[in-house]
Write a structure and sequence with these properties.
Layout (H helix, E strand, L loop, with lengths): L1 H29 L2 E7 L1 E23 L5 E6 L6 E2 L4 E5 L2 H36 L5 H34 L1 E3 L4 E3 L9 E2 L8 E16 H10 L8 E5 L6 E10 L9 E8 L11 E18 L4 E3 L2 E7 L5 E5 L1 E6 L2 E6 L6 E5 L10 E6 L12
Parallel strand pairs: 1-20
Antiparallel strand pairs: 1-19, 2-9, 2-13, 3-5, 3-8, 4-7, 5-6, 7-9, 9-12, 10-11, 10-13, 11-12, 13-18, 14-15, 15-16, 17-18
Length: 379
């Protein structure tokens, strides 16, 4: 009986011991912090300067009438594309046609008077030479000829002026572009050189991009530019910086820094034949400084900031983590370019760092999306 009781007690004890060991192992396993990880990669990557830019039309022309008259007709629909010299509006030409005809009639009248004066002076020339008339009388005849010539010249100028005013009745586009809305409807009285434009024509191709960069970034640009390099390429992105839209070239750099902001104005041109960009649009500008060879890239999500600067947790072969200080050069999309501290192939923690300490053991639950690194060079 004692033997059986002993065996039963031993079985209970062994079972309890096994359960206890299993529970301790489970607790240890449960205490492993779950983390997400990513890889440190190496590839050629562009070095960017970032700025916020806004677009504007290459040319903007406010259309105003140069004569006063009634708007007779609008020949172009609002928002329509127009070409150079295309007729947009017609001011009632009737008064200006009458002015032109009047000026021409006055010209013919004064030309006839000139012809008579010249003929009279020619006839009295011989009489003056023979002193049948005084020199004073002949000089008066010559003066009449000169006065008649002056009147004819004035009349010719008035004819030209009337012809110009008549031509101003037909308002044409001075540039290739897109019209805005019509401010005035036909039938309204249009005042010459009014402060209010009849419409605005904007040239959308190429599109201008205006942005400013800091003094620090400008000095970097100056330092990195190649010998003889006078132009820089840039990318115009959406405001969230994710979708690349257009590439262009810088054509203007201002000659001074703004004292209030410490920035310098730059302008670039982008081909816009598909009208994908619109004047007044804001976006993110990536100014390409240079191509970095064999750049070391670490996922941005892995970068932490501590008392000694920026660092990452690297995953060792025994599933423990180590804190590594890094020096960041640039940000490229979802990655950071680092100059020291890491090497290609290192595994870094990208999520779950909040409770980590150097030497702690972790369990990996997922990998960082490494496909994103392939899109870095594409902007």
């Amino acid at each position: 009986m004692r033997y059986k009781s002993f065996n039963l007690f031993f079985c209970y004890f062994a079972t309890a011991l096994l359960v206890s060991c299993s529970s301790e192992q489970q607790k240890k396993k449960e205490h492993l912090l779950p983390v997400e990880v990513g890889k440190v990669t190496q590839k050629d990557s562009p070095l960017y300067i970032y700025a916020v830019g806004n677009t504007s039309a290459n040319f903007t022309v406010d259309i105003r009438s140069q004569v006063t008259g009634t708007l007779e007709k609008a020949h172009v629909e609002q928002g329509q594309n127009v070409s150079v010299g295309q007729l947009i509006y017609t001011i009632d030409p009737a008064p200006f046609i009458a002015e032109l005809e009047q000026a021409k009639a006055q010209l013919r009248l004064d030309e006839a008077s000139l012809a008579l004066s010249e003929d009279k002076a020619e006839r009295y020339k011989s009489l003056a030479e023979k002193e049948y008339i005084s020199q004073l009388q002949f000089d008066e005849l010559i003066t009449d000829v000169e006065l008649a010539k002056a009147k004819v010249d004035v009349d010719k100028a008035k004819v030209n002026e009337a012809a110009i005013n008549l031509d101003y009745c037909y308002i044409r586009s001075p540039i290739v572009g897109k019209m805005s809305y019509n401010v005035f409807d036909p039938g309204n009285l249009i005042t010459a050189n009014s402060s209010e434009a009849m419409t605005t024509v904007r040239q959308l191709d190429p599109m201008l991009v205006n942005f400013s960069i800091s003094q620090k970034d400008f000095l970097k640009l100056q330092h990195e530019k190649g010998e003889g390099q006078t132009q820089f390429e840039f990318l115009m992105l959406d405001t969230d910086g994710k979708e690349r839209k257009k590439s262009g070239v810088i054509y203007f750099i201002d000659n001074n820094f703004d004292l209030d902001t410490g920035t310098i104005l730059m302008k670039g041109k982008i081909e816009n034949k598909d009208d994908s960009l619109w004047p007044g649009e804001f976006g993110k500008v990536q100014l390409i400084v240079k191509e970095m060879k064999n750049a070391i890239l670490v996922p941005e999500a892995a970068v932490q900031t501590g008392e000694k600067g920026q660092f990452v947790f690297t995953l060792k072969s025994d599933d423990t983590v180590e804190s590594v200080n890094i020096t960041i050069l640039e940000k490229l999309g979802d990655y950071m370019v680092v100059s020291e501290g890491l090497k290609p192939g290192d595994t870094v923690v990208t999520s779950g760092q909040i409770n980590l300490r150097p030497g702690m053991k972790v369990t990996v639950v997922s990998n960082h999306d490494e496909k994103k690194v392939n899109n870095i060079s594409k902007g």
